[in-house]
């Protein structure tokens, strides 16, 4: 499948690399490819620059958000939550129309430091904001409840754990669930319409505090029933 | 131990019954014991009136919030979140002083229907509101992330799952953890200071949507790591 990932951070890289490994044709979109390739210093989280990752993953093409969106049938929003609407604007409504958009971002607001708060919650969600802005895009929320490496390799925990999907389009959700299964997810709970993304986005404040208590982000929630 | 439960709803009854079964001296507090005993109809959730439950648990004494608070060394806040500050006011600061208060309530706001939103979140929590109002009470937040029957009998799921504790007083937290273990909880994560209750209270929007998807509240989250 032609899949494009929007965002060159650790989440975008991790998902793009795994999709390519699984045999998909993968592009990764950024605002300005030349600027992305010109960076040589680690980012503010200490992650190596994109070029370091790209050298190890030459099969993933770096391109603009617009070109990335145009060439794919399925898109992954791996931009930061605060940038998502800008990123989609750059991708362009014409390039997005009719596509499935797997939204893995969270609306984190770091303006008051750590831990971040949520810029939208309880009565709305980032996923719904995106859906309202692009009614012809099939938005599916998933994977926003666990760290990047576990998004694409949950089996590394050595025990089954849960991911959730929320979306208004049944076909798009089925497509995303197939993708999740190919990553190794064996417990996918369909929460229902996109409104239910309010629930998974609001898990983040707990996720952050569990990470603080455990000293690692290498964990995931399992719904025991 | 002398333990009092504030609140005669299903959560209060379930916890009080279990504590009594475990050998504690248990009182259950209500606004007006005569009024509580006079009710003969099921509540708005369809639960049987208090008297039905009380007939099966005669060892648990029904009394006022103030008397319940005065006689116990450990209190359980099982009132609804919206009523909690009123309930504690009726219990009385003098009766609460120096006590451990296990707060299992969530700040649910049903004013816009179902699903409820949270009346406080992200930058504050019900637990912190209580702590600020009663600085001499040792507030510990726990058990607010699962349904009443599983609060006191998590083993009925047939698989280990997680509960969280948040609180500023280490001794009070240790006391609560002992109680949790006596209920059968074998995976207790200490999230740290009471501020971390923001995380567990914000789990409720997801909990409600998982309940909707599964059609039952008989589930719990496990932190797989």
From TrEMBL, chains A, B:
One Gene Ontology MF term: ferric-chelate reductase (NADPH) activity
Any one biological process term the GO annotation gives: copper ion import
Pfam family, one: F420_oxidored
Record key words, sorted: Oxidoreductase
Entry's Gene Ontology cellular component terms: plasma membrane
InterPro entries in the cross-refs: NAD(P)-bd_dom_sf, P5C_Rdtase_cat_N, STEAP_metalloreductase
Domain Pyrroline-5-carboxylate reductase catalytic N-terminal: 3-107
Protein name: Pyrroline-5-carboxylate reductase catalytic N-terminal domain-containing protein
Organism: Pedococcus badiiscoriae
């Amino acid at each position: 499948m032609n899949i494009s990932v929007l965002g060159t951070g650790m989440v975008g890289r991790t998902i793009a690399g795994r999709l390519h490994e699984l045999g998909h044709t993968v592009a990764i979109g950024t605002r300005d490819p030349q600027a992305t390739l010109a960076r040589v210093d680690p980012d503010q989280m200490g992650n190596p620059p994109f070029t370091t990752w790209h050298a190890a993953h030459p099969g993933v093409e770096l391109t603009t958000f617009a070109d990335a969106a145009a060439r794919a049938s399925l898109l992954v929003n791996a931009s930061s939550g605060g940038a998502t609407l800008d990123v989609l604007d750059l991708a362009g409504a014409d390039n997005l129309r009719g596509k499935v958009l797997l939204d893995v971002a969270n609306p984190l607001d770091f303006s008051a430091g750590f831990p971040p708060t949520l810029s939208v919650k309880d009565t709305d969600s980032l996923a719904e904001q995106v859906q309202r802005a692009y009614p012809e895009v099939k938005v599916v929320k998933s994977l926003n409840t666990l760290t990047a490496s576990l998004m694409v390799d949950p089996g590394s925990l050595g025990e089954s754990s849960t991911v959730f999907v929320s979306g208004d389009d049944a076909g798009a959700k089925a497509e995303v669930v197939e993708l999740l299964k190919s990553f190794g997810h064996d417990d996918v709970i369909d929460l229902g319409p996109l409104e239910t993304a309010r629930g998974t986005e609001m898990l983040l404040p707990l996720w952050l505090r569990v990470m603080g208590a455990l000293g690692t982000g290498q964990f995931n929630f399992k719904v025991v029933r």
